[in-house]
Write a structure and sequence with these properties.
By secondary structure, this protein is an alpha/beta fold. Helix content is about 55%, strand content about 20%. Strand 10 and strand 11 form a beta hairpin.
Length: about 550
C-alpha cells in the first residue's frame, strides 16, 4: 500500500510530504484546490508521460516520490520478471528536469516507463470518472469474469502458448511467401542452371582456350611469317646465319690480340649458336602448324557460349560463373526442400492449437460457472445503491480464432428495471448507473484481487442522500481488503473514512500554493459541516457532521 508521498516543485505544490495509513482515507477540498494535482503526481509514479509545464519553478527539477509497502502482496516474481530489485518497502521516484528530460527510479535503480507501468499495475489503481467507460470494453469485462473465476494460472499458460503459436504462424507465413517467390523463379532458375551445367565449366581454362583459338585462326599467316623468317635466317648467300659466320671468321683473326677482342669473338660464337637454334625451332614450329577447321569451329563455339553466359550473368570470368551456378543449385534445392519445412511447421502448429483449445475450453467452462456468482454479487451491491431491480446477462459466443484471452467473445447486457428488455450496457445505462455499476465491480474485484491500493476520484458524482451513504459503506467494506482513497464532495462518504485529508490553496502577493494535510477530529467535523451547509457553518450542520462521523 502507499505509505507516504513526497512532491516537490510540481504544479501549485512547492513541497509536500504526507504519510498515509491503511483502511479508508478521504480526500476533500474545494474545486480547483489541487486534488487533481495530487492525482497527477501519482500518475507520474504510474509511468505516465511527464510535461515540462508541470514544473512550478522552471529552473528547478520536479521530484515525485512514493513509498509502497509490498511485503504482503507476493510481488517478488513481478519484480524478478521486470529485472527490478525487490524491497519490502519499495520506493518509486520520478524526476522532471528543467531541460524537459524525465527519469524514473525504483529502489534507486533507473527503469524505463514501460516497466514502471507494468510494475505499478500491481500496486495502485486510480479510478477517475472517464475510466467508467472501461465497463464498455469487452476485454475489461472479461477480466472481471476471470478474476471471479480465478483463471489467472490458466490464462498464463494460454498466453504463453499463444505467443509460441503466433510466432509459428508468422514463420509459416514467411515460408509460404518464400515458397511462392521461389516457385515464380523456379523454372527460370532451373533453365539458367541447366545452361551452366551443360556448359561444362569445371576445369575450363578460358585463357588457354582463347590462345588455342588464335593459333588455329591464324595458321596461314603464321606459316607465311615463319617461312619468311627461316629464309632470312638460313639463306646461303644473304641469310643472317651465313652473314654471322663471316663476321665470326673476321673476328677470329683479331681475338688473339687482346682479351677484349677475344671476348667479342666468344660473344659472336654464342650468338651464332643461339641464332642457329632459333632458326631450327622456327622450322620445327612451322612443321607443326597445320590447319584444322573442325577444331577451330569447336573452339569458336565453346568460346561464344562462354562469352554469351558471361554477358547474360554480367561477369567476366569462369570462376564467377561457377559461383552463380552454385547459388542457382542452392535456390533450386531450397525450392524443392521448402515443402518439408512447411509440413513440419504445420504439424507443430496443429499441436499448439490443440493445447490452446484445451486451455480455451477450460477458461470457457470456468467463466460460465463464475457468471452466476458474479451477477449475484453485483446485484446485491446495486440494490444497496439505489438500483434494486437491475439485472445482467453475460452472453458468450465462441470465436473462430484464438483471442488474447481465449476463444470467448463477450457481450454484457443490462436491464435497470423489471420488465425492461436487456440492452448493451454502454447503450442503455445512464452515467449515474455506470458509476454505481463500476463501484460494484471494483468492490467485487477487491475480494478476488491482490491489489494494495485503489483511489476513487469522485465516483459518487450524480448521487446523494441514502445512495451516497451506501456507496460510502461499500468503499468502507473494500478497505477491509485493501487501502482505499476516495476523493469526494459528499459528506455521507467523507464521514465513513478512517482518516481524512484536505487539499487547500494558500496565496500571497507573489504565488499560489496547494497543500494537503491530515485533519484531526475537530477539523473533520468542521470540514464535513462545511460540506453540508457551505462556508457559513450552522450548529445543526456541526451536529449532523458529528452524527456522520459516529456511524
Amino acid at each position: 500500500m502507499l505509505i507516504s508521498l513526497t512532491i516537490r516543485n510540481f504544479a501549485l505544490i512547492d513541497s509536500l510530504e504526507i504519510d498515509f495509513s491503511k483502511g479508508f482515507s478521504i480526500i476533500t477540498g474545494e474545486t480547483g484546490a489541487g486534488k487533481s494535482i495530487v492525482l497527477g503526481a501519482l500518475g507520474l509514479l504510474q509511468g505516465k508521460r511527464a510535461d515540462l509545464s508541470s514544473l512550478k519553478d522552471k529552473e528547478v527539477k520536479c521530484v515525485i516520490e512514493g513509498h509502497f509497502s509490498v511485503a504482503k502482496y507476493g510481488l517478488n516474481e513481478v519484480f524478478k520478471d521486470l529485472e527490478i530489485e525487490y524491497e519490502d518497502i519499495t520506493i518509486i521516484r520520478r524526476e522532471i528536469l528543467p531541460s524537459g528530460k524525465s527519469r524514473a527510479f525504483v529502489n534507486d535503480s533507473p527503469v524505463n516507463l514501460s516497466d514502471l507501468q507494468k510494475l505499478t499495475e500491481h500496486l495502485i489503481d486510480i479510478h477517475s470518472q472517464h475510466q467508467t467507460m472501461e465497463l464498455s470494453d469487452e476485454n475489461y469485462q472479461m477480466q472481471i469474469v476471470d478474476a471471479v473465476a480465478n483463471n489467472e494460472n490458466v490464462l498464463i499458460k494460454y498466453k504463453e502458448n499463444l505467443i509460441v503459436y503466433k510466432k509459428a504462424q508468422s514463420q509459416l507465413k514467411e515460408l509460404i511467401q518464400k515458397q511462392a517467390d521461389l516457385l515464380k523463379e523456379q523454372d527460370y532458375n532451373a533453365f539458367l542452371l541447366e545452361e551452366l551445367v551443360q556448359a561444362n565449366l569445371d576445369g575450363l581454362d578460358q585463357l588457354e582456350l582463347e590462345q588455342e583459338y588464335e593459333k588455329l585462326n591464324n595458321v596461314e599467316f603464321v606459316r607465311e611469317s615463319f617461312g619468311q623468317s627461316i629464309g632470312l635466317l638460313s639463306d646461303d648467300e644473304v641469310g643472317a646465319v651465313h652473314r654471322l659466320k663471316e663476321v665470326k671468321q673476321i673476328l677470329q683473326k683479331t681475338s688473339g690480340i687482346s682479351k677484349d677482342y677475344e671476348e667479342l669473338y666468344n660473344r659472336i660464337i654464342s650468338v651464332e649458336i643461339e641464332l642457329k637454334d632459333l632458326s631450327d625451332e622456327i622450322e620445327n614450329q612451322l612443321e607443326s602448324v597445320s590447319a584444322d577447321p573442325e577444331q577451330l569451329n569447336l573452339i569458336n563455339e565453346r568460346l561464344q557460349l562462354l562469352y554469351n553466359l558471361q554477358r547474360k550473368h554480367q561477369v567476366t570470368t569462369v570462376e564467377e560463373l561457377l559461383v552463380i551456378r552454385r547459388d542457382l543449385e542452392e535456390r533450386v534445392d531450397l525450392a524443392s526442400g521448402i515443402d518439408d519445412k512447411i509440413g513440419t511447421l504445420e504439424k507443430e502448429i496443429i499441436k499448439i492449437e490443440e493445447i490452446l483449445n484445451k486451455y480455451a475450453g477450460e477458461l470457457s467452462v470456468s467463466r460460465e460457472k463464475a457468471v452466476p456468482t458474479l451477477v449475484k454479487q453485483i446485484l446485491e451491491i446495486l440494490s444497496l445503491v439505489g438500483i434494486p431491480n437491475a439485472n445482467f446477462k453475460f452472453d458468450f459466443t465462441t470465436a473462430k480464432s484464438f483471442l488474447a484471452n481465449g476463444k470467448d467473445e463477450l457481450q454484457l447486457l443490462f436491464s435497470a428495471n423489471k420488465g425492461m428488455d436487456f440492452g448493451v450496457l454502454k447503450k442503455v445505462a445512464s452515467g449515474g448507473e455506470l458509476s454505481r455499476i463500476m463501484l460494484a465491480i471494483k468492490a467485487i474485484l477487491a475480494r478476488y484481487s491482490n491489489l494494495p491500493t485503489i483511489i476513487f476520484d469522485e465516483i459518487d458524482t450524480g448521487v446523494s442522500g441514502e445512495v451516497a451513504d451506501k456507496m460510502g459503506v461499500i468503499m468502507k467494506d473494500m478497505s477491509e481488503h485493501m487501502q482505499v482513497f476516495a476523493i469526494t464532495h459528499l459528506p455521507q462518504i467523507a464521514g465513513k473514512g478512517n482518516q481524512h485529508y484536505k487539499v487547500f490553496k494558500t496565496s500571497d502577493d507573489e504565488t499560489t500554493t496547494s497543500q494537503l494535510v491530515l485533519l484531526n477530529y475537530e477539523d473533520r467535523v468542521r470540514e464535513i459541516a462545511q460540506m453540508l451547509s457551505g462556508k457559513d457553518i450552522s450548529d445543526s450542520a456541526l451536529v449532523h457532521a458529528k452524527e456522520l462521523l459516529s456511524k
